[in-house]
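Bug report (template v2)

What were you trying to do?
Predict the complex of my protein with heme-A.

What happened?
Run completed; filing so the output is reviewed.

Input:
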Amino acid sequence: MSAAAEAHEHHGPPPIHYSSRINPAVLGIFLFIGSEIMLFGSFFTAYFFDRIVANPAQWPPLNEAGVPFERPWFLALINTLILVTSSFTIHWATVSCKKGNRAGLQAGMVLTFLLGLTFLLTQVIEYHRIGFNTNDTAFAATFFGLTGLHGCHVFIGLLILLVITIRAFRGHFSPSAHHGLEVGGIYWHFVDVMWIVVYVTVYVL
Amino acid sequence: MTSVTHDHHHAPASPSGLRKLTAPGWYRVLWTTPLVGFIGLGIVGLIRWAADWDPIWKSGPLATVGTVSFPMGLLIGLGGFDFWTYYASGKRTRPDSHDGHGATSWRDYFRINTDHKVIGIQYTVTTMLFFVISGFMALLFRAELAQSGDQYFNPQTFNVLVTEHAILMILLVIIPAFAGLGNIVIPLMIGAADMAFPKLNALSYWLLPIAGVTFIAGMFAPGGGPSAGWTCYAPLCAHQPMGNIFFNMAVQWGGASSIMTALNFLVTIITMRAPGMTFWRMPLLVWANFSTSLLVVLATPFIAGSQFFVLFDRVMHTNFFEAAGGGYVLGYQHIFWFYSHPAVYIMLLPGFGIISEVIAVMSRKPIFGYRLMALSLLAILVLGFSVWAHHMYVAGMAGWLRVPMMASTLLIAVPTGIKIFSWIATMWNGKINFNTPMLWATGFIATFVIGGLSGVWLGAVSIDIPVSSTYFIVAHIHYVLFGGSVFTIFTGIYYWYPKVTGRMYNEKLGKLHFWMTFIGFNATFFPMHYLGTQGMPRRVADYAPRFQELNAFASIASYLLGASTALFLFNMIWSWTKGEVVGSNPWRAMTLEWQVSSPPPTFNFDEVPQIVGGPYEFGVPGARHAILGSAQAEPVATGGH
Amino acid sequence: MTRGSIFKLFAYAVVAGAITTAVAVFIPWLPTAATRQADRMWFSIWFAEIIAIVVFAVVAAALIYCVVEFRVKPGDTSDGPPTHGHTMLEIIWTAIPTVIVIAITIVAAIVIHDNGKAGTNPLVIKVVTQQFTYQFEYPNGKTFNILRLPKDRNVKLDLSSKDVIHSFWVPAFGQKTDAVPGITTSIVITPTRTGYYPIICTQLCGLGHALMRSEAIVLESTEYDSWYASAGEAPAAAAGGTDGKSVYTAAGCGACHVFTAGGSAGTIGSSLDNLSVDAAKAGEELNDFIRSSITDPDTFLAPGYAKGVMPSTYKSSISGAQLDSLVQYLAENTK
Ligand code: HEA
Ligand code: HEA
Ligand code: CUA
Ligand SMILES: [Cu+2]
């Protein structure tokens, strides 16, 4: 071992030098979301091929009874509104936190969490009553594929929200230190925006 | 392994008694793995029972969930999530804690370790292990191919061997080997103490052995191993034996690992460069990993998607790619290649970076056309996304797609050519030291140009059609992947070996390794071009007798490759303890990693270094790349003084 | 660079080029073209080959020159000249490859365009693939296992698949395309030489992939016409025929099974010569056993064989009457 390493006495690394103004965690979550968008992209690609290329004439295709598959677009619309609302509530929580308003932060987080949970439960019930199953043609595959993938993201998002809520109640966020909240919030917004795209493609178009 | 000795810094004291079972580590793994694993399986049973599905215990869903839950148990046991569970439950955490950083004994390589240098070694050693395993599989099926007719393996076993050989080489050797070398040197090169997210870094490493073990477990799955080729085309893949489920899931583990590492590289390179380290002063290896990581982050989700779809088609009976249910079969190939073409550049760009480092240093000259070298990486990245369908010229896809795909495919020859020519121009008039790393780098240029030119042939539709899916492709694959990627990995391993171990490898053995590989490689794979044009399809255990002689020749030559690999392993292991001790900078290089001790201190630098110039200013009077704190390293004779 | 070094470099390039050219010319890389399409393809290959030789010779010469001339002398620790680049050179080696690849693109595009033209009155043959056989359906509705083609006439092959992706390739014809379930793909060929040619499946399609072969016979057009006129007498096959033996051949059982009466010697599946033994093991009557072995191959596994090997698609691809006669035929000819 060289003399240099022995001369190396003090503990811990040298102070970190940041070469960019963006916070690493925030940059990280944006890149991660980029990756997530591509994952959704692959599902949309499958949808594109199954619908536009393979079944251009009739979508949704006809089921065994000879009528097109029914998509519960109205229920999903209400669900969409619920999810969009939750984007606002988490924004409110973040703003409250930055202003030092702890009650607002806590209320905002609890509301967001509950709205997200409502969305997910509604989705599960919808699956249960929808009247077709995964093996019913490529339409069902893309339907369950896209909504299911999104559902998984909501589930992960809910876990993150839960963590943030717990930490909010424990007082870990302050007007000056709230990266955890911010990063989780960015992810939740992504989940919401993605839903709008999924909703429009799967239920409306 | 006395390599990374950090006298002052201690890994967490090893617990005793019952605490052993609860503290992160292999004792805890012993019970968390079965616990979490079987809970996963139990949930499957529960859901199927509740939904009244028959049978309750069905192999497909069980395999799918089991390949997630057992590894999860392992990770939990190892402590991969400890920090986050602490964080999540609202406990106080110290994000800057350095527990689990560094290594003082070999045991520290077998736990969650947050030191980028340790992780780099973990990666590199793991990939070499898998290189031997998957290479050995190749030697096995080459034995079958030495004669026409059926000898040792039935078609099922043969296909399993080919499939595993290829996927392990790609997902468990080449891609992570670059991640490993990058891990060791990137933070050093940019003057950072570690990666941006050390805990994530540790976790991404541990996903890798999980992926590898899952792939290999698949070979022994009841019913048979994955046997649809590494491309796992639908619909065949969805109707293969159960091993294919393991294959699909292992790809997810490997993919997740590479996405997480890439994300870490990107954030590290963007936010943690030392003062003065502008993008135009970064070593080309950092540039290369930067572009590669962008590719990984954006492309890898597509292979994840493709494997999910075939998995769903099989386990949940969906019809994504089942023609009978209205699915579109070729959709799979589009999605798969949208990842897997960029993947071939993921498997080469970091290698380009390594070659640039070595050629500049060993020729004692600045890189020729530095900026164009960096920009050509970005050009390859962008073009790489627009060529996927060149793997589908004969697949029956829309005819109009072929010409634009051909144009963009062939255009990639231009930035790649820029790199080749600039390397040669860097060597031109240099004072070249043909030591082992430089030999490999030179050999790389020669073989890769052959592979690249056969790639250009394949890119031209009218040439691809007759040779697609034949041994011509097999030849191309190995010229670019072995003669390209593997050669660059060897270059990198030899080049940084003294940095990582503090000792020099054996030069004579290194050169012998090169010549044996170079000759064995060309002898094995060059004849395959001929086999292909003459009519031998790929992925067959049996072939027409007229191809007998050449195949026997290739098989024998492949054993030379096996022998040379054994030589390499011996050199690496032997030199680690017996090699000559060398100083911090045996190559007289300018980049930062060579300015600290070998092996580098735990936190790389005492003070943040100050970057004042380009990384390859050899021969420029008085030029410096960086100014380090006073007591950092022994004096270094940089060129020109 | 001095005169001498330019000369040396040039000499290296000539030697490297000569060796590569020798390899290209003296090794018979390509099978003799047997269709007009292959002629065009071979032309584009030669075009690219010349380019590849030049590019390789240039790179090899420069590399060898570096290796020979720029070796450092032992003990010399000085650096090379600090050249950082040369704009003109960089422009040149960007521009020339660009021009070259555009040229290749144009040539290849013209070739595939010409090769895609089927003319006004092509002979259209349907190629139906399934694990591990080809069936060729002629315009008159007759189906064969062997492809017979007239010389000098445009033939359009329309490929489809009943199970997984297969492929159609005749090396000497140049053309190749996959047969994909759910869609129809096609290629055009215009045979120019009579003779026998192997048809090869190049897409991994299961365990019998290596054995999925057939034959293409190119006939003089007069011979072809007389064959076509009398083709009704040729053995009827799966599509219409229900003769047990032809079903056996048409469905490709022989690719995997030894069956003496059927003249097949495949080694992937079990021998079909002693079925009564296994029938007894399964506790079933012979005919029922054979029937269920074909429709549901996984219910009873021959000892030593794995599940999922024998295709489970015969249920749907063999019609009821055909299945009856196939079972009949097997039961009669086995022990
Ligand atoms: C490291 C991996 C790697 C790399 C770098 C490449 C590089 C290239 N590949 Fe390759 N390829 C694979 C790995 C790779 N490939 C694999 C694994 C497969 C098979 C997959 C499977 O089916 O299993 C495959 C298959 C494959 C196909 C599909 C064949 C088929 O299945 O029918 C095609 C077709 O276009 C192709 C083209 C190219 C091209 C044009 C390049 C170019 O990037 C090459 C560029 C380089 C050069 C051209 C040389 C240097 C340049 C000069 C010296 C300049 C002057 C040159 C000219 C003017 C021409 N490749
Ligand atoms: C990085 C990628 C990589 C590498 C390095 C290799 C290395 C080798 N490959 Fe591989 N290969 C692929 C990637 C790679 N391959 C891919 C992607 C395919 C396509 C698969 C598909 O069609 O799906 C393929 C397919 C493929 C085929 C075609 C199979 C077919 O289509 O039927 C063949 C045939 O010869 C082959 C041979 C070899 C050989 C002989 C080596 C040799 O270089 C191996 C050298 C040997 C070793 C490295 C082992 C060393 C062993 C020892 C030292 C023994 C020690 C023993 C103990 C300790 C017990 N490969
Ligand atoms: Cu059919 Cu291979
Ligand atoms: Cu490609």
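What did the reviewer find?
Chain C touches chain B through 88 residues (CB under 8 Å). Residues 36-69 of chain C form the longest helix (34 residues).
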